[in-house]
Amino acid sequence: MNALVPLPVLLPILGAGATLALGRHPHVQRWLSLAVLGGVVVIAAVLLVQADQHGPQTVWIGAWPERLGIVLVADRLAALMLLVSALVTLAVLAYSVGQGMTEDEEGAPLSVYHPTFLVLVAGVANAFLAGDLFNLFVSFEMLLFASYVLLTLGGTATRIRAGTIYVLVNLLSSTLFLISLAVTYAATGTLTLADLAVRLDELPDHVSLMIQLLLLTTFAIKAAIFPLSFWLPDSYPTAPAPVTAVFAGLLTKVGVYAILRMQTLLFPDSPLTDMLLWAALLTMIIGILGAVAQSDIKRMLSFTLVSHIGYLVLGIALGSQSGTAGTTFYVVHHITIQTALFLVLGLVERRAGSTALMRIGGLARLAPLLAVLFFIPAMNLAGIPPFSGFIGKVGLFQAAQADGRALAWALVAGGALTSLLTLYAVAKTWAVAFWRTPLEAHEALEAIGSTDDPDGEPVPGHDTRAVHEHRGHVHTAGGVVSRADIEEARRLGDDDMPERDFYTLIEAGEDSRHSPRGMLAPAAGLVTMSVLLSVVAGPLYALCDRAAADLHDRGPYLSSVLTGEDR
């Protein structure tokens, strides 16, 4: 028994209650939240060292006899996920505090933000440590409650609409999860993962397969695996920058973690590996095709988020130690990169007034530090060597090569194509948002207005000679823009876009010329962390390999939870 194990869940819950009571004292509330998450980081680091050196750390909650209470287990995988999530959420909270301190009192985060954020952190930690399915269900409900509040902060129509879609999808997932729990308990008489690892082997094959399909569908919705990923691109981009960052970095990874734990501990000889490989391939391809079609950076990153979930599913579906190690390493990489990119994008939106590619430009010259902070994780996301994204992809491709199946080789080709298209998507963003001048963006936007008249008459104030269409693209003095991008920008412009572009804000002297240090430092810290992942890739990958060995052995996990006669 290790008394440290429940603290990553307990501290944020107690902190949430305290910060809610301190709602009228925002400065105390902010520093208390930061202190709680700082404590979680330290505890997670200690648990990781203990799990790596001494095996899984367990504790039974509730003073019930063992096997009747709730068990929390911190093995190498859970402790590593716990540490990475704690570091990321601490950076996001610091970013939120910096954002609140630089604005007037009316624009500062609502008093409910900090307690809700801490409930979210507790839910993530509980999901990683959960040793039984019902406690995992409770974790998902904590995440659902906190996510809806955070998604709808500000109460705009767009956020309420996105939050409603998110809640409806997750309520469906929760209902399916409850059905899965009922079926599992009826068939086995337990929901403890360690017990299930033993008892599921004793069930008829068709019953075990039904339970696996129910759980897999539930977790696939949470992880946004195609075709159950439709809800994500419309939900995440509408939220405030720190909320989008923590959602993109963590929430889908909780679903991936649940699938990884289920496939290795409960169904190590799964007959569904081919289905998972197909899901991985389709998630990669469909997601990245959606990304390259976007004209808004937030939506582009949301689609790349879906696409790169396919890499994680690939490693799980291979069912090998090398595949699991590659997935574990890539999860750590992807959590860090996606969170960093969305935090930097919040700074871009603050500086330029928008994230629509048609409305911004010149950031490489006007905000060179922001350009660097975007460029590094963007190249990492695309898998450019020697970054961690490249290392993770190589590990997964080598595992697929060792598998030898034709479908595994197809995943290698699909993964390489996805990486190239990711590079294309982020390079297009760089060329338009950072390299093109604000004047060129403004001229292109103004020229496009001359094509709006339905009768073909020139619109006053626009030089129609500078504009012509060819094969679905509008050619202007400021560049070439596809008709699809124009229609997308107009659709978004109804609710989300400012009326003026970046050039107009600069000319009026209304652009934010300096990025607040309280927001810049956490974003820069996460970008630095993403680079450090490449520096320590060797030891980190070795740790991931040891974690994968434990998962496939199952012995260390089972021996830490079950008594001798039950193993």
The main pleated sheet reads as: 3 strands, antiparallel
Quickly give the structural class: mainly alpha
Distance between the termini: 18 Å
How many helices?
Answer: 23
- Largest sheet strand order: 3-4-5
What is the molecular shape?
Answer: globular
Helix and strand element order:
HHEEHHHHHHHHHHHHHHHHEEEHHHHH
Strand content: under 5%
Mean pLDDT: 82
Estimate percent helicity: over 70%
Total strands: the figure is 5
Low-confidence stretches: 101-108, 450-468, 470-480, 488-498
Nearest-angstrom radius of gyration? 24 Å
General description of the model:
The protein is mainly alpha-helical and 567 residues long. It has a domain at 435-507. The chain has 23 helices and five strands. The chain has helices at residues 7-21, 26-54, 76-101, 113-129, 133-151, 157-188, 193-199, 205-223, 232-235, 241-266, 273-292, 297-318, 321-352, 363-366, 368-382, 388-403, 406-435, 438-449, 483-493, 502-507, 517-535, 537-553, 555-561, and strands at 57-61, 70-74, 468-470, 473-476, 479-482. The chain has a three-stranded antiparallel sheet. A two-stranded antiparallel sheet has the order 1-2. Strand 3 and strand 4 form a beta hairpin. It starts with 6 loop residues before the first helix and ends in a 6-residue tail after the last helix.
